[in-house]
């Protein structure tokens, strides 16, 4: 697997849950993170529509439409990425009280 | 709704399906998630049935085997459980548990059997998740193991005790005792002893009912397992997407990023030098 570092994401200090100022700060942190993602993905935006010529292994050049298809992260990182609640699934809309059942229809 | 209101970058990206970005992850979901929970349950279960000592003894007596790190400490002496230790634990936990639960006493046979089945299903599920290639049969096996672990997990329900439930149970117990003290004052002393014996049984029963009613398995890692099979159908095997590789790569990449800001990397410099030599030669 080839790995390329794109960006180092800002990691804000942990905040307590209570105060109003903290809540606002948390919101700002989340928005900042989303802005950083937007910056990273900006080049992908157009390329997904019009395509980009990429060298192929057989020596030819192919018109490719790169589409983001995987994000490898642990659960808390996914929560930050998608803006989810902590006990929400990043894959489906299963209600919290059904997490422990074997339900697969969500 | 499970979504917090806010912006989400993936809504702006065309042809990207946000829900497909999630990839199942063996390190966090199984090793550090489910196995960790499972070991907590097993420990509490063994304690309840007085088999903790036996478990520790078997645990320490495990012989060396290729690919298996011999454990030096008793189970409860290990302070930190990281991915490496958890991976090590996967293959041997079932055997150790089986030996520790040998010769069940009166009334223990059925709980032991259920516990063993549940752990066995979870371990099998983990083993199947490691497969590098799958057929419809192997996926069906995994589904079966998952179903079985869900059917058998009830045996561990009482060990899913949260602090809030514990507080509730304590409060209920206190309330009952207070009421009884009031009643007892009005009864003759000869009857008191008999009443007390009955009450203790009743109290334990009520406590258990309460714990069973309040506890649940609704935590996220339990749910994420149900997506593993879909993922294999759609994208292929699971180890391919593990964070274990990524987290290692992260470290080297970050180090590189730091180095490149200060000076050119020696490796890169030597590369350029060779290219120049070849051209001139």
What would you say this structure looks like, in words?
Chain A has 106 residues and is mainly alpha-helical. Chain A has a domain at 29-83. In chain A, 37% of the residues lie in helices and 8% in strands. In chain A, a hairpin with a 5-residue loop joins strand 1 and strand 2 (61-64). The mean pLDDT of chain A is 82. Chain B is an all-alpha fold and 281 residues long. Chain B folds into three domains: 20-160 and 216-240, no CATH class; 166-205; 242-276. Chain B starts with 8 loop residues before the first helix and ends with a helix. Mean pLDDT of chain B is 78; it is low at 261-281. Chains A and B meet through helix 1 and helix 2 of A and helix 1, helix 2, helix 6, helix 9 and helix 11 of B.
Number of domains of chain B: 3
Give the proportion of residues in helices of chain A: 25-40%
**Largest β sheet strand count, sense and barrel closure of chain A:** 2 strands, antiparallel
Radius of gyration of chain B (CA) equals 27 Å
The count of helical stretches of chain B stands at 12
Q: Helix-strand pattern of chain A, N to C?
A: HEEH
Given helix and strand content, the structural type of chain A is: mainly alpha
- Determine the structural class of chain B based on helices, strands and strand pairing: mainly alpha
**Ranges of chain A with pLDDT <50 over ≥5 residues?**
none
Distance between the termini of chain A: 32 Å
**% residues in beta strands of chain B:** under 5%
The largest contact between protein chains, plus residue counts on each side, is:
A-B, 51 and 52 residues
Mean pLDDT of chain A: 82
| Helix-strand sequence of chain B | HHHHHHHHHHHH
Give me the number of helical elements of chain A: 2
Global outline of chain B:
globular
Show the helix and strand layout.
The complex is a heterodimer of chains A (106) and B (281).
Chain A: H1 20-50, E1 52-55, E2 61-64, H2 75-82
Antiparallel strand pairs in A: 1-2
Chain B: H1 9-12, H2 26-48, H3 52-60, H4 83-100, H5 109-129, H6 136-152, H7 163-184, H8 189-214, H9 220-224, H10 228-235, H11 243-262, H12 266-280
């Amino acid at each position: 697997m080839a790995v390329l570092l794109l960006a180092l994401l800002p990691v804000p200090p942990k905040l307590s849950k209570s105060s109003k100022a903290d809540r606002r700060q948390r919101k700002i942190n989340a928005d900042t993170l989303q802005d950083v993602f937007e910056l990273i993905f900006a080049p992908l935006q157009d390329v997904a529509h019009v395509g980009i010529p990429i060298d192929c292994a057989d020596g030819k050049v192919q018109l490719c439409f790169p589409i983001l298809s995987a994000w490898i992260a642990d659960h808390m990182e996914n929560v930050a990425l998608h803006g989810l609640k902590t006990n929400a699934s990043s894959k489906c809309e299963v209600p919290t009280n059904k997490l422990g059942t074997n339900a697969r229809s969500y | 709704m499970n979504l917090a209101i806010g912006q989400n970058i993936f809504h702006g990206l065309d042809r990207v399906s946000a829900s497909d970005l999630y990839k199942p992850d063996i390190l966090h979901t199984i090793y550090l998630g489910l196995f960790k929970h499972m070991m907590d349950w097993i420990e509490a279960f063994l304690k309840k049935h007085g088999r903790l000592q036996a478990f520790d003894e078997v645990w320490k007596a495990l012989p060396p085997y290729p690919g298996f790190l011999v454990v030096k400490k008793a189970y409860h002496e290990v302070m930190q459980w990281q991915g490496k230790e958890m991976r090590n634990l996967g293959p041997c936990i079932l055997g150790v548990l089986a030996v520790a639960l040998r010769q069940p006493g009166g009334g223990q046979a059925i709980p032991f059997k259920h516990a063993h089945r549940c752990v066995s299903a979870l371990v099998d599920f983990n083993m199947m998740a490691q497969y590098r290639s799958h057929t419809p049969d192997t996926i069906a096996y995994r589904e079966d193991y998952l179903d079985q672990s869900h059917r058998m997990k009830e045996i561990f329900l009482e060990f899913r005790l949260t602090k809030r439930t514990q507080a509730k149970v304590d409060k209920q117990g206190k309330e009952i005792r207070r009421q009884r003290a009031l009643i007892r004052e009005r009864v003759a002393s000869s009857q008191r002893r008999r009443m007390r014996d009955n009450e203790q049984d009743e109290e334990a029963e009520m406590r258990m009912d309460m714990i069973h009613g309040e506890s649940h398995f609704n935590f996220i890692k339990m749910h994420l397992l149900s997506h593993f099979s879909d993922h294999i159908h759609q994208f292929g095997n699971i180890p391919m997407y593990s964070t274990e590789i990524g987290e290692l790569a992260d470290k080297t990449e970050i180090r590189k990023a730091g180095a490149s800001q200060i000076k050119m990397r020696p490796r890169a410099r030597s590369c350029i030098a060779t290219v120049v030599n070849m051209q001139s030669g």
